[in-house]
Amino acid sequence: MKMSVSQFLSKTKIFSKVAGIVFGFAFSQQALASWHLDPLHSELHFVTVKNSAVTEVHSFRTIDGMINNQGMVVVDIDLASVNTHIEIRDERIKDMLFNVVNYPEASLSAQVDLKVLNGMKVGEIKTVPLTVDLSLHDHQQKIDTKVSVTALNDGAFQVNTLKPIVIDTALFELSDGVKALQDVAKLDSIATSIPVTAQFVFQPE
């Protein structure tokens, strides 16, 4: 079952209070650090190909997320915030593909090693292997990838995909939605493998 950021925040706050009571000063402030996603400096893009030749880049306007003090990362994607730069297409994708009335969000989750993050100096860049769980339309898939992590000022981090992550829409039972979009737009084809790239900036709490 996927955990939303709000649920995640609640569990994180409870854990922090219990940890503080039980362990007192045994943990440093850094060890109990957490980070929130900075929406102004974070982006999530996906690429579509239609008629085997026309490639377009799209994005989501609203994403939310955090890293808790155990290194658990959760990023929620508001599917209704899809932005293809064509309003009627946005509406069709929301209704015919994502079915946002019943499935308003997708979510990404992963576990990171806080020792790696806390040991980085400002300006340092590291390549970090990551296993990401993507939850979409009541289906989950594990994705093994590598990301670039850059230590920024004031304890912030920037995370970038090193190469596009290719999502197979069939694994999330979205094939009928893709076909519906193809038919309504009178297209010969729409590719069902979707490359996704991301840049996430996490600011310390």
From TrEMBL:
SUPFAM superfamilies noted in UniProt: YceI-like (SSF101874)
Keywords tagged on the record: Signal
The keyword Signal belongs to this UniProt entry's keyword annotation: yes
Residue ranges constituting the Lipid/polyisoprenoid-binding YceI-like domain according to the UniProt record: 34-203
Residues in the signal sequence: 1-33
Entry protein name: Lipid/polyisoprenoid-binding YceI-like domain-containing protein
The organism of origin for this protein: Vibrio algivorus
